[in-house]
Amino acid sequence: TAEKVREVEAYFAALRVQRERAEDRVGLARLTLVIQTLTGGPSASAPATAEAASTPVPQAAGTPARRPDRRLTVFSIGRAAQNTYAPSEPSPVSRVPGDLGAVVAITGGRSHALVLLPNGRVRGWGTWEGEDVTAPAEATDVVRLDSSDESALALRADGKVAVWGPGKAAQLWEPPPGKAPSDICAGTNSSGFVLCTDGTLHHTDGAPGKTAEATPPVTIGPVARLTYIAGSGFCAIQRDGTALFWGEPTPPVTPLPGDLRDLSFLSFSERYAVAMQRDGTLTGWGDLAPGQRFRIRRFTGSLGVPRDPTSRLIPIHRGDHAWELVPNPSTPDYLAEDRVSVIEGRLRGCFDALFTEYCVLGLRPQ
Question: Which helix (H) or strand (E) holds 346?
């Protein structure tokens, strides 16, 4: 009713006054975003004067993303291909620091790991491009963390993103006016994309058109999830469930099949890729090794499909925190993953896992 609408408008107007009196820019910006989401336009409680109409759109301070609060322990599981020998010395990434303590999230690449700590700081170990991986001072009060072999991005609570990579000092990316970052995706050459709450993408080097992978197609719609494909480009799952790729095609994985619909996750290896639909159906495409085949299966309630840099596995993180390691059909039998059942057993109950070249780093509750 009209009376209820007036009550709601008065409530939001009172909240706005409280935030303004407290000089709480973050709270005020978040309140404005909530009101705009509910009303489909500018805040109903905002002043409707000519002066207010001419006022520039304020910077959307902060991010609606929240740091995970579950405290987890990192442990390492050795891995190798069949008919191969393990390295004479453990890979640096497999040696979890003894003083690490609790973490809330993990990311990394083929030979390095970065973890998000409960206090919002970042810590790393292992190597990327031949040098020790480190976390910069700019990576503070972090709520989201992502890394590739060449880049790392840390989304901070104030909405800024720390961006760094091998041999490159950290830079702070700031969102455009009126935009609120919600997620990040690390790419190549110390850069990546920031996903905002309205589904728009923003490249951290601020130079669209510089490279093919830094420039999404003009036909792109609101994005729900973004995946980096090493050596190729990016693939977005749009909010309508369709996928869109841009970059340098690398057959047979990209370009993508034209019939991909209702997607929730994508995962890419060198010769094979898989797509998980919202109902849990996992389909794949690419090259099959001699004697190998891919069987379409359904993993209802799955939480993700992490990337395996060795291309031996398609890891499925199930909703009950069990893990199923599906053999990559592009890998010959004689180079398949060794001890699959052992890795699955040790990952049972893990809330996340990072697959590197010589180990799997699991995150289990403390």
Answer: helix 340-347
